[in-house]
Known about the structure:
homodimer; alpha+beta; Jelly Rolls; seven-stranded antiparallel sheet; 19% strand
Amino acid sequence: xxxxxxxxxxxxxxxxxxxxxQDPVIHARNQHRWEGPLDETSLSRYxxxxxxxxxxxxxxxxxxxxxxVLKELEKDAxxxxxxxxxxxxxxxxxxxxxxxxxxxxAFDELTRDPRIxxxxxxxxxxxxxxxxxxxxxxxxxxxxxxxxxSDFETWHAEDGMPRMRAVxxxxxxxDNNEFNGPLMLxxxxxxTFVPYKGKTPPANWxxxxxxxxxxxxxxxxxxxxANWGGIKAPKGPAGSLLLFECNTLHASxxxxxxxxxxxxxxVYNSIENRLQExxxxxxxxxxYLGARHNIQPLDMHDExxxxxxxxxxxx
Amino acid sequence: xxxxxxxxxxxxxxxxxxxxxQDPVIHARNQHRWEGPLDETSLSRYxxxxxxxxxxxxxxxxxxxxxxVLKELEKDAxxxxxxxxxxxxxxxxxxxxxxxxxxxxAFDELTRDPRIxxxxxxxxxxxxxxxxxxxxxxxxxxxxxxxxxSDFETWHAEDGMPRMRAVxxxxxxxDNNEFNGPLMLxxxxxxTFVPYKGKTPPANWxxxxxxxxxxxxxxxxxxxxANWGGIKAPKGPAGSLLLFECNTLHASxxxxxxxxxxxxxxVYNSIENRLQExxxxxxxxxxYLGARHNIQPLDMHDExxxxxxxxxxxx
Lengths: 315, 315
C-alpha cells in the first residue's frame, strides 16, 4: 500500500499547528503572469488579500434574469425534494440550489463569460472546469449566517482536491449592504492552512451545508488571522463580482434587514488539480458538490458566435 | 373597578395595527426647549431619527475603568448566581449585570455626569431618575445578537411605564465597528408603536433577557419601517455615546469578529412618568429591571464639589 503524502493534513485526532501555504497564489508563472485581463495592480492585490472585488461588474439587467430562474426552480417539486436543494435552518425557505450550471443554460454561459473565464485562467495558469456551482438566497429578517471557514479545507478533506489551485466567483444578484448579511473575508488568510482537530463524521455534508461545525478553524488561529489581516465585507449593487482564492477564510452574519440577499456562486478548479480520493473522509461527496466526472475544460462563450475568432472587422 | 385608558395597547389576543406616537419626542416645550446643552440642530435630528450619536464623547481613559469593574464583579460568586446577572445563551459567558449604578459608585457618578444629565433633562423636560442600568459584554466570535424591538413596548406592558418619556444612554467601553455586533437602529421608528399579538407569559423576563420573543414587532411592520427609515449602526471608538428614545427600534447581530464589544446602558425616565401597574402582565418585573422604589431625582455630580455652584471665578 502506498501512502499519499498530504501537504495539508486536517481532521486529525491530534492538534496540528497552522501550516503555511505550499502553493502559489497566482499559478501563471513568469512572463505568463500577464497573459490575461488582470493588470499587475490587481494581481498583486489578489496575491496579498486572497480576493478581488469588482463593484458593479455587470449591469443589473444582466443579472436580474437569474432571480427569475430561481423562482422557476421553486415550482419544480421533484427538484425541491432532492439533496441538491438546501433549505434555511431558520426559516425553512429555499436557501441554495446546487449544480446550477447544469440546470440553467444562462448560468452555464455565465461561467464561460470571456471576462470572468479570462481572469480565472490567468490566476490558475491553466484550463479550468467547474468544481461546484450554486445559487444562494438569504431572506430578509430570516437568513441564517455562516461561520468562518476555508472552502479548500473541506474540498481537500472531503473531496480530495490536492492543491490550492481553485478560485470561487460570487456574482451578486441583489445589493450587498452592511445589514443584509454580506460575505466577510479575512484578507491574507489564504496564506495559512488551519488544520481541524476531529474526524469527519460519515455523510458530514448533509449537515455541513446547513451549518458547518466540522473543519472550521479554532478560535485562537482565527483571532490571530483576523487581528493580522482585519475583516472586509465588500458592498455594492447587484451585478458586483467577487473572486476569491479557495483558502481565503470567509463567513456571513444573519440577515437582520428586510432586504434579501442573493448571489450566484461557482468554483473554478484547474484541470491540473483534479479530485483524488478524499484526504480525510470515508467516501467522496456527491458529484453536485464536487465534480469528478463532469470536468471538461470550459471554452469561452461568445455572444456573437458568427464573428467569434474572426477578429474585429476593419472600419 | 376603574379601567385605565391605555394609549399603547399591546400583548393582545387580536391583531392591532401600528399606532402613531401619542407623545412628544422632546418634552421641554416652547422656550424651555433650548434650556440645555443641545442646540436646535441636534434637537431636530433627535426628533426626526429618535437617537443622537456622539462619536468619541469621552476619552478612552475615562471609560476603561468600567471594564475593570466588570472583571471585579466576575469574582463575586454571590452576585454571579443572582438573577441580576445574565449569561450568554451561546457561550455561557457573562453578558449583562443589571442595576450597575447601585453596585458601582463610578457608574452612579457617570449617570449624574452634568453633560449627559443636562441633555437628558432637556429632552425629557423634567427631573429624571434611573429606570434601569446595566453593563453589557459581547464576546469575540461568541456574542449572540438581539432581535429588533422597542424597549418602551416591554416597559409599558411589563413595567407599567405610562408614556413615551424616557431616554436610553449607551456608552461604548470598546470600539464599535462593523463586525463586532454594533447596535443597529431604524431612524424614525420611534414615531410608531407596534402592538404585539399574544399574551405575556408569566415571568416572561426570565427568558426575554436572553432572547426576546414576546413583544417584538411583526415582520411586515418592521419591513415597512426599515424601508421607510433605513437602518443605521453608529461606529466609533470607546468613549462614544448614544442617546436613543425609548420607542426607537433597535437590534444587534452576532459578534463574528475576535473583538469583544462592551457598553454601559442606563435608562432615564421622567419623574412625571413613574411606573404604574403593568399594562399587560400579571405582575411587575423585579426592581433591578424597572425601578419603582428607587426613584429619587438625580442631581448632577460635580468633580470639583468645592467650587460647584459658585460660578466661574473672575479672571
